């Protein structure tokens, strides 16, 4: 050894041998550690085997980590856990027992989840049924996954699992095959949920379809599946003579539904050919619903062609609906584009309209004109024919001007206008020189005469077709059925007002609704309603004694069908008409078969001749108003009228005795 190295070695001393010793130690550890771990697991296997449950699988799971032994699982109770840990501690060899042993508990709610953690890796967490062995459940789940998928199962055994849990777990795990990393399928009791990003568009559609058929006993909860991102996002509306075609993508289900609604409206009875797929990739600065609405605004201006959005720009090509549509499309493209959308090309050709169409549609709310007219004079002629025949409904004009109209178009529409305005609902549709009238009439005679009237109205050279139906007549019942139904409606009724009040009690409603239904089905039915006063108070016997007994009193809500009841008004000097009586002329008793009153010289109501006048009792501060019976009768009549009875069917009868309101059926 050179003399120059000797002093250095002497100074280093024994430290020079440390690297060699470290190498020897590492080599020994690497060689001996696996042998130690294998021996520990072999010794612990006998302890684990002794924890087998009714499922045939031991609940104890062991893993050797060098000289440490990791124990996991769920013991049935605390005592068995302590026993197993003591047996493990007595094994020859382990340096330390690391316990992760839990106790089987009841999970409420019972929750379990499968999460895609990698391309071929699924993590299981939450709770699994204690009645099912871990390996048996994993085998069931693996059968629903793609071959080669690895399970990382950290779920803990628990009680409280729903019936047929393995079927639900396998169903959820199978859905993960269509989701990207991070996709999650979860169970909470019997509710299944799914979230994540679909791998591609076919997977997205397959996932949505499969969720419509969950396992028996389970329901679908929250679904948050987002479609995949596509680099070439596009949206296309194609218009043909048959209808509307949709192609491209929609970011969400609601966007797709918006496109389908717009296509159905634009097709106007034609077909809608839907090829839209769910996908993301639209610039976040662009509102998808705004894009869809703008595309259909452009589509309204073409007879045939396409509106296409691609590469951030929208364009329109094809045959314009008329010459005016070309500048209209250019103006839309220039001034009305939604934010974020670039202007594409406008390549439209104006062709003669074939066929030339115009429609007048009558609804309960309005009359609407759509299609084309040759000039403003024809437009005004048609509007002048419609407006005088409409009282409340507005006329909405959405027609456009275009050449190519058939001869006498204005004359044909003006002649047919009275026919459509006489309908409850319907329309006139013109296609070249053919006019079709369809709809529903309130009257059978009008419906039956529609073809004849249309043929008389059309100019020479025009053809017409009418298909007008009569609205179904309301239900009608024979008199005997009406009386029987009336008796059933009031049977057992107790129309008793609260003391001192003319306000209907909620218990009145079923009886009065039944009476109104009978009145609607029986137009000839006549009903008299007699209000009643409150019972006399014991402290004022004099007032009660002055009241005239009613000779023809009937039981409450009793039918007086065998003889017409006495409907003459009681001769009370306080029977001056109330404001309610004046406001409801249709229900006053002044024009009925009986109960007429006349005005006396002093402006008071005088009793009908032949009836003695009753002396007015003295009023006290705590007594109800003297016209309380009349107010109660009016309240009942008002309810019947609002429920559908006609004014001529109900009238005010004479005031009744204290008790429930009297309802009488007149002959």
Automatic annotation (TrEMBL):
InterPro entries according to UniProt: OmpA-like_sf
Biased composition (Basic and acidic residues): 581-596
Organism, as annotated: Methylobacterium tardum
Gene3D superfamilies: 3.40.1520.20, OmpA-like domain
Region (Disordered): 533-633, 645-667
Protein known as: BON domain-containing protein
UniProt feature, compositional bias: Low complexity: 533-548, 597-612
């Amino acid at each position: 050894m050179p003399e120059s190295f000797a002093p250095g070695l002497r100074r280093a001393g024994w430290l020079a041998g440390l690297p060699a010793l470290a190498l020897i130690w590492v080599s020994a550890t690497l060689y001996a550690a696996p042998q130690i771990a294998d021996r520990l697991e072999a010794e612990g296997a006998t302890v684990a085997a002794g924890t087998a449950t009714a499922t045939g699988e031991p609940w104890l799971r062991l893993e050797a980590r060098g000289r440490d032994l990791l124990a996991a699982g769920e013991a049935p109770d605390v005592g068995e856990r302590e026993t197993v840990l003591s047996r493990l501690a007595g094994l020859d060899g382990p340096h330390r027992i690391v316990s992760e042993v839990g106790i089987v508990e009841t999970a409420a709610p019972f929750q379990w989840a499968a999460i895609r953690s990698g391309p071929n890796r699924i993590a299981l967490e939450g709770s699994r049924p204690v009645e099912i062995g871990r390996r048996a459940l994993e085998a069931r789940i693996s059968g629903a996954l793609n071959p080669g998928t690895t399970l990382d199962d950290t779920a803990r055994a628990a009680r409280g699992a729903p019936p047929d849990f393995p079927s639900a777990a396998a169903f959820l795990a199978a859905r993960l095959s269509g989701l990207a990393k991070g996709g999650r399928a979860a169970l909470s009791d019997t509710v299944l949920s799914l979230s994540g990003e679909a791998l591609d568009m076919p997977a997205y559609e397959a996932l949505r379809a499969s969720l419509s058929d969950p396992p028996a006993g389970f329901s679908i909860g929250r679904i948050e599946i987002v479609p995949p991102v596509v680099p070439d996002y596009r949206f296309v509306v194609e218009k043909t003579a048959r209808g509307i075609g949709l192609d491209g993508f929609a970011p969400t289900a609601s966007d797709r539904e918006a496109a389908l609604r717009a296509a159905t409206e634009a097709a106007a009875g034609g077909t809608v050919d839907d090829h839209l797929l769910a996908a993301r990739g639209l610039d976040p600065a662009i509102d998808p619903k705004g894009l869809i609405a703008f595309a259909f605004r452009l589509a309204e201006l073409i007879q045939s062609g396409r509106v296409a959005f691609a590469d951030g720009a929208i364009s329109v090509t094809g045959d314009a609906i008329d010459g005016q549509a070309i500048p209209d499309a250019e103006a839309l493209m220039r001034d009305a584009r939604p934010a974020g959308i670039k202007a594409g090309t406008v390549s439209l050709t104006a062709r003669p309209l074939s066929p030339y169409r115009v429609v007048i549609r009558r609804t309960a709310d309005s009359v609407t004109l759509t299609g084309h007219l040759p000039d403003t004079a024809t437009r005004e002629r048609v509007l002048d024919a419609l407006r005088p025949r409409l009282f409340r409904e507005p006329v909405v004009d959405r027609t456009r001007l275009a050449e190519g109209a058939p001869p006498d178009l204005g004359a044909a529409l003006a002649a047919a206008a009275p026919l459509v305005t006489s309908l409850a609902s319907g329309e006139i549709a013109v296609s070249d020189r053919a006019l079709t009238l369809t709809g529903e009439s309130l009257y059978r005679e009008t419906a039956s005469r529609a073809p004849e009237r249309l043929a008389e109205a059309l100019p020479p050279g025009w053809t017409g077709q009418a298909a007008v139906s009569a609205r179904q007549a309301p239900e009608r019942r024979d008199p005997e059925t009406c009386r029987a139904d009336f008796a059933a409606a009031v049977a057992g009724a107790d129309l008793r007002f609260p003391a001192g009040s003319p306000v209907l009690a909620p218990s009145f409603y079923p009886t009065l609704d039944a009476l109104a239904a009978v009145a609607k089905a029986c137009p000839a039915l006549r009903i008299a309603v007699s209000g009643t006063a409150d019972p006399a108070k014991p402290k004022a016997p004099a007032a009660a004694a002055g009241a005239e007994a009613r000779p023809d009193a009937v039981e409450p809500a009793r039918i007086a069908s065998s003889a017409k009841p006495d409907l003459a008004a009681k001769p009370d000097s306080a029977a001056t008409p109330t404001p309610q009586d004046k406001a409801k002329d249709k229900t006053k008793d002044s024009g009925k078969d009986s109960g007429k009153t006349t005005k006396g010289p002093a402006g008071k109501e005088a009793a009908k001749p032949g009836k003695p006048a009753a002396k007015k009792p003295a009023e006290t501060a705590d007594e109800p108003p003297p016209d309380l019976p009349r107010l109660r009768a009016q309240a009942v009549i008002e309810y019947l009228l609002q429920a559908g009875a006609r004014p001529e069917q109900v009238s005010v009868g004479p005031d009744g005795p204290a008790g429930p309101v009297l309802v009488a059926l007149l002959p």
